[in-house]
Amino acid sequence: MKTLGKSLKRPDAITKVTGKAKYVADYQVKNMLVGKILRSNIAHGHITKIDVSKAKALPGVVAIISADDVPDIKFQPTGLPIASYPEPGMHADKNILTNYVRFYGDEIAAVAAVDVLTARKALELIEVEYEELPVYLNPQDAMTEGTVEIHPDSKNVLGRNEFTIGETDLAEAFERCDLVREDEFMVNPVQHCQMENHIAYAYMDEKERVVIVTSTQIPHIVRRVTAHALGLTANQVRIIKPYIGGGFGSKTDVCIEAIVASLTLAAGGKPVLIDMEREECMIGTRLRHAIQFKIKTGVNREGRILAKEMISVSNTGAYASHGHDIASKGGGNFFRTYPAELVTHFEGTTAYTNLPPAGAMRAYGIPQVNFAVESHMDDVASALGMDPVVFRKINMIQEGFVDPLKRNMVIENIGLDQCLDKAKDYIGWDKKRKQYSKCQTGDRRRGVGIACFSYGTAVWPYDLEVAGARMKLDPDGTLQLTMGATEIGQGSDTVFCQMASEITGIAYEHVLIEHINDTDHSPFDTGAYASRQCYVSGQAVKKAGLEIRNQILERAEHLSGIKVKDLDIVAGQIVEVNSKRLVISLMDIALKSYCSMELFGVIKSEVQVDVRSTAYAFGASAAEVEVDIKTGRVEILNICNVHDSGTILNPMLAKGQVHGGMSMSLGLGLSEVMLFNDKGKPLNNNLLDYKLPTIMDTPDFGVEFVETYEPTGPFGNKALGEPPAISPAAAVRNAILQATGVRVNQTPMNPQSLFERFTLEGLI
Amino acid sequence: MSLRIHFSVNGTHKELLVESGETLLEMLRGRLGLTGVKRGCSVGECGACTVLVDGLNVDSCIYLAAWADGREIRTLEGLADGDDLNPVQQAFVDHGAVQCGFCTPGLVMTATAMAEKGIKLTRDEVRRELSGHLCRCTGYQNIMTAVEAVLED
Ligand code: FES
Ligand code: FES
């Protein structure tokens, strides 16, 4: 590879360090009105009265809307599952504004006013009376017989699925085991905390279409969902996505777009901006699902897993968002990483409660299941008296694995074993594991821990995977690339440019990518989620690039008489393959394609691909910790992630993804949790009380890759964006176990919870 | 109440009428169009809005515009000399310290203040100096690498 595989610099880095990159808030539209959302201050109940008259009378208020002013249409705010397209979605349970409040912070009215102060004042003047209903914060309470249904006819169950894979009867299989162990785990809710809050502005254009400029990961899906919610056709809505300040899944839902569009409609098409406050964003968008797990594993004396079972209960909060998909994906993951010899059983339930809605967050439920499974693996290993690495190696997925949950696809190119070896060596496993296993008695105790993961790329076969790319050779010989895929900070635009350069032979610096997505102009693509972009959208780049290259070479053949197969494009020149002799410059061909009598015909291509494959990424984390018994503080002395993501397309960017993911996993494992009182009122929805990892909490991260070649990926690549956020938390948990002998089965493992546990266990 | 203030921003002298409750962040973004200054929280928690006031890094969201009277303000927009990035900006580009870029303006300002002081710092001290900034994308690692590279030069 010429361009791919190199640590080329991001084309957007310069615009970002100079302040030229424009995010939604940076478009300073004249006479923009300020939109604010009135959120409920109870978690469950009916609105019996809402009076906006005083607010309406306030000078400077331009529009006020409540549930009665918006279409009575239920919609599902996500793109997934999209298989039901053009139906509104499997779980259309949301109105733009509601009369029935389901969580503290539910959207009940919205105001557009001339400035922030007036908008805020107007919210205060809206009079709301509620008839309160009982508040359910956990699935068990919500699913108890006779409770109030948060959504009609749901019994507060959003979804349920189960599967048994294997011929043997489960009970019988457990009986055949030499050892059976059962554990319970709880992963508590966290929030994305991308640095740019959700923000969008909307106006009506001269054709009376609603234009929404928004910070989203999924512009085309936002268009479809918003149009549906507003009772419009897709064509009446246009979505523009400029630079965005992170998403991590929280921007794969329509959170504010339909509200801001309703406000501009109510304000006669005037531009209205909703720029969320941090406090609002942390409860008014999405959370990561809190999930409880019960896992039972049976092994034989040699350590081979014969039977296993997982029962998980996921808390989706007030609305479905991504539905039951997140919990059910966990089931597949449980089945796959360490397949049982005889039988695997999974039961997953997702319940409605009165917490803020949970949705997609980096790695889509797998960090939760990984914390449980990888912790449990260590517990089984210790019950067997076996080294956790050895136990994993005996049981890990092997090449040639046939996956009945994925249409019997055969999983090949598994670098998991090498990842585990590298992680083990990095941390000095053999020596340290032995050293720390000696009985430790002091206040500061050390341990090493390990965890593995597997992760599927993109969402096939559950949904269609489509992407589009457009290329055009400009008169100066530079290539213009327009993608439907969305850059959200992860660096996909950079890698798309590298891919385009690799395929066409046009220099990387001469490939210019359009950073803005616009549903009027960008090719169709479902957007940034499921670590799909380099894998799925990359195939569109490859296809478009091949077409362009061919067109260029055909012109060169026409001019020179040298056959296409004997020509190549190298650094902006068309050369003869054998002699390396210059045939014609790319610039010449490009210019001629715009103005030559003989050669006119702009060189361009536009392609759509639909990708009907998936590939599994693998990896391992290893951590060394020191636990301060007296304070419950965990210090990470050393930590690494080793990834098999197929070919690494840009090492510097890839490492950056791994760093960010590891930090996110440590946040989930050690410090982050959204807290609520017993009435469902959020207690720490700000960046001071919510413990997002700071630079002081963050250790240096070791990152290594095991490069396999994935034949279904456009360049041998598979998922990388989300996987780093999966396994560090469990590795740390297992290191704490070695250091202290205490099994911490709940996140976050923060000083308070550890202090309480250590006290309980008599360590303090 | 409105107040008339005189200050310089990125080397240019300005005179403005500001509201007594207006923050420096609102003034820079709203009145002067310096949108490189970002807003992540409005209450001094994230550091995205950091600018330099007389060489000192401050959260402009909790600093009143009126306090800028007589002072010298610097923002991200004033760091590069034409196409030449300042050393911190260049290091952020070179070391992959930029992902979504939303925390970047604040961090570049603080790091610029550190670099201009010219004091050698240990790795722990660098962390401490940067600790007022939150970044969700990078795990801070490449940011540390970039800042250390500048401080070593
Ligand atoms: S916006 Fe000023 S510190 Fe967050
Ligand atoms: S680069 Fe995105 S928050 Fe720091």
Q: What structural class results from the helix and strand content of chain A?
A: alpha+beta
**CATH superfamily assignment of the largest domain in chain A?**
Aldehyde oxidase/xanthine dehydrogenase, molybdopterin binding domain
Helix content range of chain A = 25-40%
What is the name of the CATH architecture of the largest domain in chain A?
A: 2-Layer Sandwich
CATH class of the largest domain in chain B: Alpha Beta
Coarse morphology of chain A: globular
How are strands sequenced across the largest beta sheet of chain B? Answer: 2-1-5-3-4
User: How many extended strands of chain B?
Assistant: 5
CATH topology of the largest domain in chain B: Ubiquitin-like (UB roll)
Could you explain the architecture of this structure?
Chain A has 764 residues and is α+β, with helices and mostly antiparallel strands. Chain A has four domains: 31-133 and 205-246 and 250-276, Aldehyde oxidase/xanthine dehydrogenase, a/b hammerhead (Aldehyde Oxidoreductase, domain 3); 137-194 and 286-380, Aldehyde oxidase/xanthine dehydrogenase, molybdopterin binding domain (Aldehyde Oxidoreductase, domain 4, 2-Layer Sandwich), CATH 3.30.365; 396-456 and 615-764, Aldehyde oxidase/xanthine dehydrogenase, molybdopterin binding domain (Aldehyde Oxidoreductase, domain 4, 2-Layer Sandwich); 466-610, Aldehyde oxidase/xanthine dehydrogenase, molybdopterin binding domain (Aldehyde Oxidoreductase, domain 4). Helix content of chain A is 29%, strand content 26%. Chain A is built from 19 helices and 31 strands. In chain A, the strands form eight sheets. Chain A has an eight-stranded mixed β-sheet with strand order 3-5-1-12-9-10-11-24, with helices on both faces. The longest helix of chain A is centred in the last third of the chain and has 28 residues, at 533-560. The radius of gyration of chain A is 27 Å and the shape is globular. Chain B is an alpha+beta fold and 153 residues long. Chain B has helices spanning 24-31, 87-94, 104-117, 123-130, 141-152, and strands at 2-9, 12-19, 50-53, 56-59, 72-74. In chain B, strands 2-1-5-3-4 form a five-stranded mixed β-sheet, covered by helices on one side. The longest helix of chain B is centred in the last third of the chain and has 14 residues, at 104-117. Chain B is globular, with a radius of gyration of 15 Å. In chain B, 55% of the residues are buried. Classes of the chains: A alpha+beta (764), B alpha+beta (153). At the A-B interface, helix 1 and helix 17 of A face helix 2, helix 3, helix 4 and helix 5 of B. The structure holds FE2/S2 (inorganic) cluster (2 copies). One FE2/S2 (inorganic) cluster is lined by residues 39-42, 44-49, 59, 61 of chain B.
